[in-house]
Amino acid sequence: MAGRLKPPGLIMFTLRNVTFRHGCQTPIFDGFSWHASRGERWAVLGPSGCGKTTLLTLLAGLQMPTDGQVMVDSQPLTRPRPQTGLILQDYGLLPWASVRENVDLGLKVRHFYGQDGRHTPEGWSPVQTVNSWLERLGLAAVAGQYPAQLSGGQRQRTAIARTLILQPDLLLMDEPFSSLDALTREDLQSLTLELCAEHHLTLVLVTHAIEEAVAVGSRILLLGQPPNRQPRLLENPGAGQPGFRASAIYQAMCQAIRTELSHETA
User: Fold this and answer.
1) Whole-angstrom Cα distance, residue 265 to residue 49?
2) CA distance 169 to 199
3) C-alpha torsion 40→57→102→81, nearest 10
């Protein structure tokens, strides 16, 4: 996979003067512009109804802007792209399929449609096998079990394996750890950081938890009540560093964001 990656620092995606509304409602985004460079880790925070999930669906190509343009990897986004991975809160696993079959599902679809999502592939094969991903994510022992037999953490690991085996360059996560207990949540946050570093993924993590955003996102996007016109950006270079969660800088960042967001709900 390293051979197809572009040098770090290049723009991964851009929102150019994006407006998005449902029908005649107040626009969620109104002339909104934002971009991320390849390999950056972003966390997106904001009050309920501010457009966090809408932002992900725009980046995933599942919804199109009312006006403006979304560019991903220098191309206008007109439909979902195979190189974008999307992981949802409810995992999206097939309940009648085993862990191994769920992880293998994406490969079967890719081999049928090809890397461009339209054509039969010519010689495409994954860099890592299903078995290697099961081992990497600690799922080998439960490979034959079904989602109902798994813990929440194991189900989320399965969803991660199914996504990353397709070699995405952009990973979108919508509150993926919110239903997990605190220790499992922190374990999967750390795993996500490791995988992003290993595979040079650009990450956009939507969360409602301030502590999670500060632990994962080296850059943080704050959204407010609609319409969102100007992005509010925070630099958080300590995210992912050893001992960061226990540091005074971490606590100060969490408090600063809590104060900032309190104005949105006051």
Assistant:
1) 11
2) 8
3) -70
Q: What pairing do the DSSP bridges indicate for beta strands 67-72 and 170-174?
A: unpaired
240: left (phi over 0), alpha (psi -120 to 50) or beta: left
pLDDT digit string (tens) for 79-95? 998 899 999 888 889 99
What are 91's two structure tokens?
A: 């995992």
> Using alpha carbons only, how large is the chain's radius of gyration in Å?
18
For the stretch 125-184, pLDDT in tens is 667 789 999 999 999 999 999 999 999 999 999 999 999 998 899 999 999 998 899 999
d(Cα 101, Cα 124) in Å, to the nearest integer? 20
Q: Where do the domains of the chain lie?
A: 9-83+170-266, 91-167
The CATH architecture assigned to 9-83+170-266 reads 3-Layer(aba) Sandwich (3.40)
Task: Provide the residue type at 218 as one letter.
Answer: S
The span from the CA of 156 to the CA of 87, in Å, is 9
Rounded Cα gap, residues 130 and 132, in angstroms? 6
Backbone angles phi, psi at 135, to 5 degrees: -65, -45
- Rounded CA-CA distance 75/83 in Å is 12
State the pTM of this model: 0.90
Omega of the bond leading into 227 within 30 degrees of 0 (cis): yes
